Amino acid sequence: MPEPIHPDFFLKLTSVLTPSLSPNGDMLAFARSHVDHDEMKTHNSIAMLKLLDQESRSFTAGPSDTNPKFSPDGKSVSFLRPDGDDVAQIWIIPVAGGEARQVTTGPAAATEHAWSPDSRSLAFVANVDPDRLPPDHDHENHPRVRIARRIRYRHDQRGWVGDSFNQLFVVEAASGETRQLTEGEGDCSVPVWSPAGDRIAYISDEVEERDFNNDSEARVIPAVGGTPTAWSAGLHRVWALDWSPDGTRLAACGTHDPIMWDPRETSIYLLEAGRDCRNLTDGAYTSDPSSAEVRWLAEGIWFIGDRHGQSFLCRVDEEGGIVTEVGGPVKYSGGWAIDADATRAALIEVTAAAIDNLVLFDRSTGTRNQVTDFNRSYLEAHPPAAMEKFTIERGGQQIECRVLHPPDFDPGQRYPMVVDIHGGPHSRFSDWFDPYQQIIATAGYVVLGVNPRGSSSYGLDFAKMVLGDWGGEDFLDIMAGVDALCERDYVDADRLAVHGASYGGYMGSWIIGHDHRFKAAVVGAPCTNLHSMYGTSDIGVSFFEMNWRGTPLELRDALLAHSPISYVENVTTPVLLYHGENDLRCPIEQSEQYFVALLRLGREVEFLRYPDSPHGFRRSAHPALRTDCSRRILDWLEKHV
């Protein structure tokens, strides 16, 4: 009998992140992350892999080293490491060996960084706060009030923002001399040097009515400083950039659609100063900016393209049209890299049965080679659940579903079933290892994931069908998937449960207010009251006005009709709520309202509150908290299903 994947999986996992190929393609640097069991802390270090012998070695000691980048001359690797005040700074270490040295010394953390073509400078992003207090400020004896003057005064991952903004800087690699390039009331991100090194392209959200939308634009600024110019006419949002080899144009991952706010449904565009953008991709793929880069090389523009929940390494030429699949289909995450002549590409691969493996595509030989396998021994002892895909038709749409079967699955037996609901609403379930689904499935449950209308990677029109209709056709799509799976003899239709977080938590709480067949519900970080979330979420105004095409003053009845709390009296299912106490995206008051309402009605409910945890804490919180959450989910299911 195979061992299940236990909730302590997060303590056993080794993750690989942000690969960087040397310019000649013979070495690969990457960040390696694992939990130090003695200190119960996440340990991050940089590893180096020589591709000739394919043996990796530790390159830095850590414990908090991330985001390595080879210099264009191949002699150095830059990375991020905290200084003595625990502020992330840029450090540089010679590839040939030696001690790392600190390059930046600013009061705010350096984040995204990029080498200049001559390897003499680095562009980076750091926060500029006019109200920043010195590190030794005595907060106990000299407390200071915080003053909000704008709607976007908080951010789920960053906390209090106030009047601060992320600005663009350049630092000289040898001397550490630093100059600030940008200013103004907007955040800058993703600096990219022109091939000649005389200009830097970047993304700015310093746009008209910034407080009321999440628009952004591509800008170009001289590397020595000066006035930036906008290059993305015709686009509403930009998420990734790269220069053409001749330095005259930009490739961008973005969207021209004014109400498609989510970066998971995008296209590749060609940008040129003084001209409108041109869409290059054919609509069958969405370029995934979570994979970090768009690269424009001599043979075309390279990106990670997603289609129907699968990921491919893709290429499109500057004329647009046909997208060529170079590698896949698998899920790629955490960044990717390609060498200067597009011979080798390194990607982090996640499949349905494996997680966080570095793979190398060699176009000169047509081979794909897996070069790391840190989690093999664990997964051999704890085999993942097998995935099956099926499609149903409902309301004129093809709805794709994925189901996980427990190890040693026997179709002659009957199993309890958990329907899992993704977030977004524009996320999607993919052909990849989902640790929370695997923990549930290998504990003996059939797990169903439905990609209802609104999910990404099925085209822009499909993604937009959910706007203004949460709890409508999307709910019916999910329930149709449940009905279809319940027709199979191995599913015990009397032992059903529902789980979801974020929009999935919204839908979970919506389902149990409209359907009584579920024996248990696990509702994570939900949106239960659309009215209050508009004013309490860090993205409430822009998110809701794009999703619902109006404000609560204009849509009072519609928002109440689509809020799960309006149907709380109908709930009979036992509910387990969980929420991060620092969640500013779907604020914890959303769970608090639902918890109090259920408890006052005498329903069975428990409320898990995770300290110091933002909205996506299931992916980023302390491993002990992630383990605890998974264990309590299993306990709730075992108790009630």
Key structural traits:
641 residues
Mean pLDDT: 93
In helices, the fraction of residues equals 10-25%
Spans of 5+ residues with little confidence (pLDDT < 50)?
Answer: none
Structural class of the helix and strand makeup?
alpha+beta
> How many strand elements?
38
The major β-sheet equals: 8 strands, antiparallel
Rg over C-alpha atoms, rounded to the nearest angstrom: 24 Å
Strand content: 35-45%
Straight-line N-to-C gap: 22 Å
Our count of helices gives 12
| Overall body shape | globular
Structure write-up:
The chain has about 650 residues and is of the alpha+beta class. It is about 15% helix and about 35% strand. It has 12 helices and 38 strands. The strands form 8 sheets. Strands 23, 24, 25, 26, 27, 28, 29 and 30 form an 8-stranded antiparallel beta sheet that branches. The radius of gyration is 24 Å and the shape is globular. It starts with 8 loop residues before the first helix and ends with a helix. The model has no long low-confidence stretch (mean pLDDT about 95).
Structure in a nutshell:
The protein is α+β, with helices and mostly antiparallel strands and 641 residues long. Strands 23, 24, 25, 26, 27, 28, 29 and 30 form an eight-stranded antiparallel sheet that branches. Strands 31-32-34-33-35-36-37-38 form an eight-stranded mixed sheet, sandwiched between helices. Strands 1-2-3-4 form a four-stranded antiparallel sheet.
